[in-house]
């Protein structure tokens, strides 16, 4: 099989899918005009730039392609109701701002897709929308790293830190969770990045500190598919916010992760958790229980969420798509 990657920027899903294809023996390369491909992968990115351009999409009109929407559609209960009806799911809330994605480019993309048949792989698959069969959820693939060793009970129980959290202060929900953890009396390694534009911890340091702790809290704890959540799953016990999104191979609280309650305390502008402190304390009092949940989370990640596993899923979706039926637009725009 030969895949063309139609790309305007590189993001985590694209790069990891590319590697996953290589791992399973599928040839993938950047799309070249008039070259023959079995399928083309077309991505919508979370790129905040007015120079973001798709170019001449009509060159793809004779190809079978999958549209992979990596955009952060946003908390569906946070968006104004008219936005959800006026804009297609490839739009982010920030797309309405002139300093981010060009609305002209996004509109051209939607006009190109409309009336064509293609599998639509969407990162944030919302549970309250009746998706057609041509829509499929996609998660961040896990990159296998040398430190992702199979869980070992003795080394896990000997870890020196109870809980590690690392995130920026770009949303008040993270500050709320941090405050609750600090009040709980948990022995925690807390790394807070005060500069909203300061980035995250370097990957190596982040991974090392995850491996020193018995548990972590997802930095995107409000319930989306986050790439560092996937990385954490294979290194320690993962606490995550209750999920409002539908995932391809979902985790289950108490089995391979632990979900805490997320409360919309102010109609989408202030999220809090009523039980994260007590929940983390109750689990950390029983290290054997923590180890069992972590072990099952590790196995789940290695089975369903590696780069190779997600690449197989995308190819299976392409090969089983109904190419005779146009993919419907969820919302008119």
What features would you describe in this structure?
With 333 residues, the protein is an alpha/beta fold. The protein folds into 2 domains: 2-141 and 308-319, no CATH class; 153-305, 3-Layer(aba) Sandwich (Rossmann fold). 31% of the residues lie in helices and 17% in strands. It has helices at residues 12-23, 81-86, 103-113, 153-157, 172-184, 203-211, 227-233, 276-284, 287-304, 307-319, and strands spanning 2-6, 27-30, 39-44, 65-69, 120-122, 135-137, 161-168, 188-193, 213-217, 237-241, 258-260, 263-264, 271-272. Helix 5 links the parallel strand 7 and strand 8. Helix 1 (12-23) packs across helix 10 (307-319) and helix 5 (172-184) crosses helix 8 (276-284). It is elongated and about 60 Å long. Residues 73-100 have low confidence and may be disordered.
């Amino acid at each position: 099989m030969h895949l063309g990657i139609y790309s305007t920027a590189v993001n985590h899903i694209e790069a990891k899918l590319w590697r996953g294809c290589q791992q399973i023996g599928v040839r993938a390369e950047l799309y070249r005009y008039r070259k023959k491909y079995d399928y083309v992968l077309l991505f919508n990115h979370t790129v905040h730039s007015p120079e973001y351009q798709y170019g001449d999409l009509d060159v793809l009109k004779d190809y079978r392609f999958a549209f992979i929407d990596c955009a952060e559609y946003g908390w569906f209960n946070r968006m104004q109701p008219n936005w959800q009806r006026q804009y297609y799911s490839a739009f982010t809330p920030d797309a309405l701002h002139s300093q981010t994605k060009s609305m002209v480019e996004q509109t051209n993309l939607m006009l190109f897709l409309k009336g064509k048949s293609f599998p639509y792989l969407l990162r944030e698959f919302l549970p309250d929308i009746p998706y057609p069969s041509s829509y499929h959820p996609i998660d961040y693939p896990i990159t296998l790293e040398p430190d992702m060793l199979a869980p070992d009970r003795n080394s896990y129980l000997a870890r020196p830190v109870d809980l590690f959290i690392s995130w920026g202060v770009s949303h008040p929900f993270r500050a709320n969770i941090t405050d609750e953890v600090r009040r709980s009396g948990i022995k925690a390694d807390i790394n807070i990045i005060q500069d909203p534009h300061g980035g995250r911890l370097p990957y190596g340091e982040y991974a090392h500190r995850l491996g020193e702790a018995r548990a972590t809290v997802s930095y995107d704890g409000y319930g989306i598919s986050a790439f560092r959540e996937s990385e954490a799953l294979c290194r320690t016990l993962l606490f995550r916010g209750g999920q409002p999104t539908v995932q391809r191979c979902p985790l289950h609280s108490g089995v391979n992760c632990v979900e805490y309650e997320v409360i919309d305390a102010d109609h989408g502008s202030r999220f809090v958790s009523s039980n994260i402190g007590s929940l983390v304390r109750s689990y950390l009092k029983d290290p054997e229980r923590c180890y069992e949940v972590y072990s099952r989370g590790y196995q789940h990640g290695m089975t369903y969420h590696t780069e190779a596993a997600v690449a197989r899923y995308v190819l299976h979706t392409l090969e089983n798509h109904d190419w005779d039926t146009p993919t419907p637009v969820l919302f008119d725009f």
